[in-house]
Write a structure and sequence with these properties.
There is one protein chain. This protein is an alpha/beta fold. It folds into 3 domains: about 1-50, no CATH class; about 65-205, Rossmann fold (3-Layer(aba) Sandwich); about 215-375, 3-Layer(aba) Sandwich (Rossmann fold). It has helices at about 5-15, 30-40, 45-50, 55-75, 110-115, 130-135, 150-155, 170-180, 190-200, 205-230, 255-260, 270-275, 305-320, 330-335, 340-345, 350-365; strands at about 75-80, 85-90, 90-95, 100-105, 120, 140, 145, 150, 160-165, 185, 235-240, 245, 280-285, 295-300, 335-340. A 5-stranded mixed sheet has the order 13-12-11-14-15. A hairpin with a 2-residue loop joins strand 2 and strand 3. Helix 4 (about 55-75) crosses helix 9 (about 190-200) and helix 9 (about 190-200) runs antiparallel to helix 10. The longest helix has 26 residues, at about 205-230. The radius of gyration is 22 Å and the shape is globular.
């Protein structure tokens, strides 16, 4: 085990060896607490905590990840001659041979990532992709978030020959859309898999593969830059809502999982503990100083459709900043707090994740990294 690996393990699980003195080891977390948490971690998570951040190690790791995501995508999309079939939670869809008039319902992120032309989608001026969508003159399909219904008249007016939807709606919505045009649904929370599956469904698998490799190349660059500066210091994400504060876990939430899976950021012990929570990971203000985060990301509010709640959440955050408990958090004391764009961080899809990774890089890696981006190319097996 090299020094970096030992230092990282020490800061996470609090294992202190008498024979070694390693700077950066977080000895504030007791051996008893650490041993208890470590004992509950799955072998997969324990393995994740031991990963390296060299160029070669990341290439190997991401190549395996690429293969895993491809295998998952192939379970969803089958190609038999010129017949492409998509399996989803509502059933199966045989893709039309041609699709020139595509309507997209909350799958705008991967469609844009693949650079596939489409007629209409669901977005508004608060959407993180608004500028790109409006520049392409994409028509708007309205969605009522309270009733989880779609304006079917607007969909029909587009005369689509294919509808691509996120599977977060119910069966009735899918059935209604499928009566208008063949409709394929995808789980956007699995953003990498859904990107590949969508490209396969549209008959452009090579485009999906190239785009995912580009995504991993960016993740590699951001990861190496961040680790050159912050090393094994701990990083956490707090989300401030109108009635509560949430500490996001290490591997159980699809909003921030990329921080630890792709960027290999080091979690405080409390973040690892959150993996075992059966609740929504709400945390009291009184417990925040115990988090022991060296770097802290703050997301306040909800998505673009909840303006009033966003304002309440922002006011709550400003109130927190005036509390003396807030100033006991290590990250606050060190000036390592970054407020992020909630509309981006709450979104799913690789474009959203690329923006989120870049926001961390801009805050804590950009001025410090001595690497050259064009040398950081992810290698993949054929």
């Amino acid at each position: 085990m090299n020094v970096n690996t030992f230092s990282k393990l020490c800061s996470v699980v609090g294992i202190v060896a008498v024979a070694f003195t390693i700077s950066g080891c977080n000895i504030n977390q007791t051996n008893e607490q650490s041993a208890q948490v470590m004992g509950q971690l799955s072998p997969k998570v324990q393995g994740m905590l031991h990963r390296q951040n060299t160029s070669e190690a990341i290439d190997v790791e991401f190549a395996k990840r690429f293969d895993d995501k491809m295998a998952q995508a192939k379970k969803l999309v089958t190609v038999d001659g010129d017949t492409i079939t998509v399996k989803h939670k509502f059933g199966t869809t045989v893709m039309p041979k041609t699709h020139q008039r595509i309507v997209v319902i909350r799958m705008e992120d991967p469609i844009l990532a693949l650079d596939v032309p489409f007629l209409a989608g669901n977005y508004n001026p608060n959407h993180y992709l608004y500028e790109q969508l409006s520049a392409k003159d994409i028509n708007v399909i309205s969605v009522n978030d309270d009733s989880k219904t779609i304006n079917y008249e607007q969909v029909q007016a587009e005369k689509p020959d294919l509808i691509i939807m996120r599977d977060s709606f119910d069966q009735n919505v899918y059935n209604a859309l499928n009566k208008i045009a063949p409709t394929a649904a995808f789980d956007l929370r699995q953003d990498e898999t859904s990107l590949l599956a969508l490209s396969m469904a549209l008959g452009i698998p090579e485009t999906g593969e190239l785009r995912l490799r580009e995504y991993y190349s960016k993740a590699k660059f951001y990861r190496m830059a961040l680790h050159e500066h912050i090393g094994d210091k701990t990083v956490a994400l707090l989300r401030v809502l109108n009635k509560e504060i949430r500490l996001y876990p290490y591997s159980k939430n699809d909003i921030n999982r990329f921080m630890y899976e792709l960027l290999n950021l080091n979690p405080p012990l409390m973040v690892l503990e959150a993996d075992f929570s059966t609740t929504n990971n709400a945390i009291s203000l009184e417990r925040l100083p115990d988090m022991k985060a060296d770097y802290l990301l703050i997301s306040s509010g909800y998505g673009p459709s909840s303006k009033q709640n966003n304002k309440i959440a922002q006011n709550r955050l400003e109130s927190m900043k005036r509390d003396e408990l807030w100033h006991k958090i290590p990250a606050v004391q060190q000036g390592h707090v970054e407020e992020v764009d909630t509309t981006v961080w709450n979104a799913h899809g690789i474009l959203a994740k690329e923006q989120s990774m870049k926001s961390i890089y801009d805050a804590w890696g950009n001025k410090w990294y001595s690497g050259i981006s064009n040398l950081l190319v992810v290698k993949h097996k054929k």
